[in-house]
């Protein structure tokens, strides 16, 4: 299994190989690690203090009970320099939010953010820190209404849980819902609580969602939700595990489908952070975030992977950017899709009345 640094290197290498960031439209900003105080704006002191305590240790056997208390183990084993790692991950998205708050730039990209499962006092689902929540909290210093859009194959449970009491941050997640599929939350009737009721919207697909079904639902729900809520800014999580070929997501989707969703966001011309997320086929993850970078910047990219890429061999056997659609049966029936659309329209009516 490759490390997170290898994962990041493969993504950045492909983007660099296409020379997308050499455009005069792009300003590269060096991120700053999050401070302890910034991390504790969302995460509990006990969780952060534990990660600090074990940061430089080589063995964690003396901390078995505490590890499990903080969700560390199985899919989130303690990593060497774990605390330093989360400061860097969180710092990237906090820096992105600061750019939107303090400058006139409209779009910020941080493909190495999007760790949407982490909870206030625990790691979860390969996520040790919820950089998305921390970025949204920073954005509230300037923007009063924020729409969080989650395109990962998994429900964005950590972000929803953080804001489900708020009517100022609307969380919207398109994801797969199937027996035993992580995290098992995000049902259609999961709409938040108290004052935040109906400001958490979940659009769960059954197994095998096709490009056509996904886009039909997105294009008939997203604009209605935006119209009802009238956000001032967007945060978009672009997890790559919804693509065909991902061993965890096991979905049918292609680059173009996620690209169309991003184009829909861009039409509103609002300050927006685009971040990454899941992606367990590293080559396809690099393909997606490279393709989305070109979409966001309005740059054409060749379908042939540049042979200057250090990881060129990873893109065989086609050595192409495009990904074929999957061939799984789409279990999203017409009746089910109509139920989704009708339900979301009813939610929009409530949101519009309360916004």
Q: Note the run of SSEs as H and E.
A: HHHHHEHEHEEHHEHEHH
- Average pLDDT taken over every residue: 95
Helix content: 25-40%
pLDDT below 50 for ≥5 consecutive residues: which ranges?
none
Gyration radius, in Å: 20 Å
Spatial strand sequence of the major β-sheet: 1-6-5-2-3-4
Largest sheet: 6 strands, parallel
Got a strand count? 6
Structural class: alpha/beta
Strand content: 5-15%
Number of helices: 12
Shape: globular
- End-to-end gap: 46 Å
Description:
The chain is an alpha/beta fold. The chain has helices at residues 4-17, 36-39, 45-53, 64-69, 82-102, 131-139, 157-163, 211-219, 222-229, 255-266, 282-297, 334-354, and strands at 107-110, 146-150, 169-176, 200-205, 233-237, 272-275. A six-stranded parallel sheet has the order 1-6-5-2-3-4, sandwiched between helices. Helix 1 (4-17) crosses helix 11, helix 5 (82-102) packs parallel to helix 6 and helix 9 packs parallel to helix 12. The longest helix has 21 residues, at 82-102. It starts with a helix and ends with a helix. The model has no long low-confidence stretch (mean pLDDT 95).
Short description:
This protein is α/β, with parallel strands linked by helices and 355 residues long. It is 38% helix and 9% strand.
List keywords for this structure.
355 residues, alpha/beta, 6 strands
Give the helix/strand layout.
Elements: H1 4-17, H2 36-39, H3 45-53, H4 64-69, H5 82-102, E1 107-110, H6 131-139, E2 146-150, H7 157-163, E3 169-176, E4 200-205, H8 211-219, H9 222-229, E5 233-237, H10 255-266, E6 272-275, H11 282-297, H12 334-354
Parallel strand pairs: 1-6, 2-3, 2-5, 3-4, 5-6
Helix pairs in contact: 1-11, 5-6, 8-10, 9-12, 10-11
